[in-house]
Design a protein that fits this description.
This protein is α/β, with parallel strands linked by helices. The protein has 14 helices and eleven strands. The protein folds into three domains: about 140 residues, Rossmann fold (3-Layer(aba) Sandwich); about 140 residues, no CATH class; about 70 residues, Rna Polymerase Sigma Factor, Chain: A. Helix content is about 45%, strand content about 15%. The longest helix is centred in the last third of the chain and has 23 residues. The structure holds NADPH dihydro-nicotinamide-adenine-dinucleotide phosphate (NDP) and magnesium ion. The site of NADPH dihydro-nicotinamide-adenine-dinucleotide phosphate has 27 residues, from α1 and α5. Magnesium ion binds next to α6.
Length: about 375
């Protein structure tokens, strides 16, 4: 098997793992995108000899291959005739543009960028239904559920997304307000980019994943459950109507779901460390604490309300996380800011991409205003 890949967000954590998968499988990198890391972009060109690079910032540089810029560049490489699969692992909501372009060109989208589905789920789904394209999830929990559902969706009662619980699983609630970025960036089981690592600490990552699962698997919110599993060995479970449960296990390594999204429906050998049950003394489970992690509760509420609320939830979260990383707001301010921004929602046209983009821009603008009031 050989596939031609466009890898968007190639310089990040998922990008780096994906390049390792491509190296191992001998798949061709036709195009990639980077934002600010020019040195890493040069190394990628040197090793993989792609035809195009896309830069999503305005950095002008010579990296040894033609550079396209911004949204247009992402859409161009996502629609290239000789690209089979577009892996979307950019940060933030810009991922929606190449996702839609790839689907319209009938390609497979290997989707890591959950913000795309959370913010623009109905639009992505509509485009998907009308296209010859497909979406294969890369997010580990969704990859697990995707594999477990495997044609038996009608027999499924509930799906379970597992969560490590993050670095503050055992921290008392009233100590959370003093948490600093360096504490929140210490994830117990996964090594990931900074934004998603903070999302894991607030458990808002799991909130985003509930919404992601809703659009991917067409399940009502009350049948998408979260279960804390600190060892991060089980990535997803499904409960069947006859009382049987299925679970997906591996050591935590994103190269497993990435490779699956590229080779599906086949499975090819991989260099990852295979799971060894004798190395794991126990697998434990806890209920998520929605009072301690109000962002998770808010995600369920937002999903039930629908309309433009998931878009606002995602955009406000992203901006609040960056303010927290800059030490401009506290850790527990993140869900509070999102909550307050949602309360101010004047309403947007949630049936169009333009309307949702406007809601996204509005929410980002409101975050600074709300944060200033919180700090007074
Ligand atoms: P990183 O921060 O490590 O990487 C982000 C990538 O996007 C980099 O290539 C970066 O370029 C690029 N980028 C940064 N800012 C922008 C921008 N404004 N526009 C376009 N591209 C940008 O993140 P991760 O790899 O951890 O995560 C990427 C996506 O995958 C996220 O949506 C995340 O939620 C999702 N995901 C990640 C998982 C993980 O294990 N890391 C697991 C599941 C999902 P540069 O470095 O050149 O600045
Ligand atoms: Mg995940």
């Amino acid at each position: 098997m050989s596939k031609k890949i466009a890898l968007l967000g190639a310089t990040g954590s998922i990008g780096t793992s994906t390049l390792d998968v491509l190296r191992n499988l001998g798949f061709e990198l036709v195009a990639f995108s980077f934002h600010s890391n020019v040195n890493r972009a040069k190394e990628i060109v040197k090793e993989f000899h792609p035809r195009f690079a896309v830069c999503t910032s305005n950095k002008k540089s010579d990296i040894g291959v033609p550079i396209l810029y911004g949204r247009d560049g992402l859409e161009f490489v996502a629609s290239l005739e000789d690209v089979d699969i577009v892996l979307v692992s950019t940060a933030g909501t810009i991922g929606v543009f190449p996702t839609l372009a790839a689907l319209k060109s009938g390609k497979r989208v290997a989707l890591a960028n959950k913000e795309t589905l959370v913010s623009f789920g109905p639009i992505v789904k509509k485009t998907l239904e009308k296209s010859q394209g497909e979406i294969i999830p890369v997010d580990s929990e969704h990859s697990a559920i995707f594999q477990l559902l495997d044609g038996r969706k009608d027999e499924v009662e509930n799906i379970y997304l597992t969560a490590s619980g993050g670095p503050f699983r055992q921290t008392p609630k009233d100590e959370l307000k003093n948490v600093k970025p360096r504490d929140a960036l210490k994830h117990p089981t996964w090594s990931m980019g900074r934004k998603i690592t903070i999302d894991s600490a607030t458990m808002i990552n799991k909130g985003l994943e509930i919404i992601e699962a809703y659009y991917l698997f067409d399940m009502p919110p009350e049948r998408i459950k979260v279960i804390v599993h600190p060892q991060s060995i089980i990535h997803g479970m499904v409960e069947l109507r006859d009382g049987a449960w299925l679970a997906h296990l591996s050591f935590p390594d994103m190269r497993i779901p990435i490779q699956y999204a590229l080779t599906y429906p086949e499975r090819l050998p991989s260099p990852v460390r295979t799971f060894n049950p004798f190395e794991v003394s126990e697998l434990t489970f806890e209920k998520p604490d929605m009072e301690k992690f109000p962002g998770l509760k808010l995600a369920y509420e937002v999903l039930k309300e629908g309309r433009e609320l998931p878009t606002i939830f995602n955009a406000a979260n992203e901006e609040a996380v960056y303010l927290f990383l800059d030490e401009k707001v506290g850790f527990t301010d993140i869900p509070e800011i999102i909550h307050r921004v949602i309360e101010l929602n004047p309403g947007f046209d949630h049936n169009s991409l333009e309307g949702l983009l406007e809601a996204d821009r509005w929410a980002r603008g409101k975050v600074k205003e709300v944060a200033r009031k919180l700090n007074k």
